[in-house]
Structures are given as C-alpha cells and as structure tokens.
TrEMBL record:
It comes from Methylogaea oryzae. InterPro entries: CHAD_dom, CHAD_dom_sf. Residues 17-305 form the CHAD domain. It comes from the Bacteria. Pfam families: CHAD. This is CHAD domain-containing protein. Gene3D superfamilies: CHAD domain (1.40.20.10). SMART domains: CHAD.
Length: 325
C-alpha cells in the first residue's frame, strides 16, 4: 500500500519511454489518493499530521500542474490550478496557526520562567484562530462544490489519453521531459541563489525557497527514472538548504504574526507581563532567524559546488532538448 504521509512519498513506477502525459496523470492520481486519504482523516476528527499531509498533497499537486508543462490542454489545467490554489490557501491558513500553537510550549522555554504563565492569553488567541480557520476548511471540504471539483478532477485523470496530441511534450518520453525540466529548475535555483547578498530582503530568500521546493518535488515525482542512491544524495543536499531557508522564512512569518497579535484588541488589553513575554518570544525568533540566515551561505555553496553540478549532470544524462519554455 502506498505511503500517504508526506514524509515518505512513494510515487508510481515510471518507464523512461512512456508518454509524458500518461506519466503525469499517474503521478497526479497518486497525489489525489493521498489528498483524499488525509481529507478523510481530517473530516473524521482524528488528531495527527493529516492537516499537514493534506496541505503538502495540495502543494505537490499545484507544483506538478505548474512544472510538468505542455502535456495537458491549458484551459482545463488553469481551472483545476485555480481550484487547488484556493484549497492551498485555506489549508495553509489552518496549518499555520496549528504550527504556532504546537511550537509555543517549546518556545516558552526561552522565556524567563516568571513570565511563562503570562503567555496563556497568547495561547488562547492562537487556539481561537486555529479553530476558526479549521472550521472554515472543514466546511469547504464537506461542501457540494468541493466534492464536485474533486470528482471532475478524478474524471480528467481517469480519461483515456488521446492517440495524438499537438501539445509539445504530451507524447514525448517522460525521461526526456523530466530531465529537461529538472535541469531548468536547477539552473534557476543556482541563478536565484547566486544573486543573494548579505543585505538581500527576506522575499529574495523566500522566492529561492519556493524554487528549491519545486526542484525537490520534481526529483521526487520522477524518482523511479533515476538511480536511487545518486538521487537521494542530491535530494539530501537540497533538503538541507531547504531546512535553512524554511527556518528563516518561518521566523520572518512568526515575527509578523506576533507583532500583529500584539496589536489585536484582545491582547492589547492583556497584562503587561503578557506583552513582556511576547517580547521575549520575539527576541528568540529573531535570533533563530539570524542563525538560519548565517547557515544559508554554507548550504547553498554545497548545492552550487562543481561536485554537485557534476552529479546533477550525471543524473540527467538525457536529451533535454524537450524543454523550450
């Protein structure tokens, strides 16, 4: 049985010479099954990582639709892409507050002990916002519109492939299409990373993080086409960079969230000790952001090294002329 948790994605077997549109449909069908499994877990009310895994399945679906290009008719894909974008927005809103709430206990250890109890108003507000966004998401998942959207998506994925296609990559071998796309996104990662300076704004690192995520997802989608050991070595290097970028971005978002929460009517009326405790949290988050930013150069240097470039070139020893856009 497939692993439906994002930490251990197992994608369908692929054959190098099979059509790219057929391979893309099987990858997307697997992601739909992952999404539906975690949706059922969410709707059942069971605790665990179902919200996280649901959001990741949505995110990976959006990546596949955006990155496996010119294999499906654009008008159909635009409609589905818009639907998954909205689903991603709703699931992210619920998950973000869940993450803040789950991390508060650990973060509270960085606050002077006399102030820790004063964080309870913050905990209550985080919990309230999480419940609100989760209710909004669950209401949508139970709606007729959502059920119809997923039914139409499954019908599209289950429809037989056309014998011929005017789309550039639809009938090309998946190995050629995958290799060309992976190489292009890797080059984009290098270009964006090399442009990062010590005074670059957080948004520049956030954009690089998103591009790294696309590259990693592509490597995982098409993992069956490449030697496992060589692939995992490259994924490991990429994952280490993503973790630094993720820690930095999460810190930036947390700072903004804490400042926004401190300005809310409920917390403005809180005791001074609560605001002092939140100030201590802000200092810790800012310190962690600095540590993650300092670790970026080392992690990126490894990904951009001549040795890693050779490894990517060796992995992608295919005719990548298919990638033209």
């Amino acid at each position: 049985m497939a692993n439906f948790h994002s930490g251990g994605q197992k994608y369908p077997a692929l054959w190098p010479e099979e059509r790219a549109d057929g391979a893309a449909k099987r990858i997307l069908r697997h992601l739909l099954e992952t999404l539906e499994y975690n949706q059922a877990e969410l709707l059942s009310g069971r605790d665990g990582e179902s919200l996280h895994d649901f959001r990741v399945a949505v995110r990976r679906t959006r990546c596949a639709l955006g990155q496996i290009k010119q294999v499906f008719p654009a008008p159909r894909i635009r409609r589905f892409a818009a639907g998954f974008a909205e689903l991603g927005r709703m699931s992210s809103a619920a998950r973000d507050w869940e993450v803040y709430l789950q991390g508060l206990d650990a973060q509270a250890q960085t606050v002077p002990e006399p102030l820790r109890a004063a964080l309870e108003p913050l905990r209550a507000e985080l919990s309230r916002r999480h419940r609100r966004e989760l209710r909004h998401l669950l209401r949508h998942l139970r709606s007729a519109d959502h059920r119809r959207f997923l039914a139409e998506w499954r019908a599209f994925l289950d429809a037989p492939l056309p014998r011929r296609s005017s789309l550039l990559h639809a009938t090309q071998p998946v190995l050629v299409v995958a290799g060309g796309r992976i190489e292009k996104v890797y080059r984009r990662v290098l270009k964006e990373g090399e442009a990062i300076e010590p005074d670059s704004p957080p948004q520049a690192l956030h954009e690089l993080r998103k591009t790294c995520k696309k590259l990693r997802y592509l490597l995982e989608f098409f993992q069956a086409l490449y030697p496992p050991r060589r692939l995992q070595r490259l994924v490991g290097i990429l994952k280490a960079l993503q973790e630094e970028l993720g820690a930095y971005q999460d810190s930036q978002v947390q700072v903004a969230a804490l400042l926004e929460l401190a300005a809310t009517h409920k917390l403005r009326r809180a005791q001074p000790m609560t605001l002092m405790a939140m100030g201590a949290l802000l200092r810790d988050v800012d310190q962690r952001a600095g540590q993650a930013r300092a670790g970026f150069d080392r992690r990126f240097a490894l990904l951009a090294s001549a040795k890693t470039r050779r490894r990517f070139a060796g992995l992608l020893q295919v005719d990548n002329a298919a990638e033209t856009d």
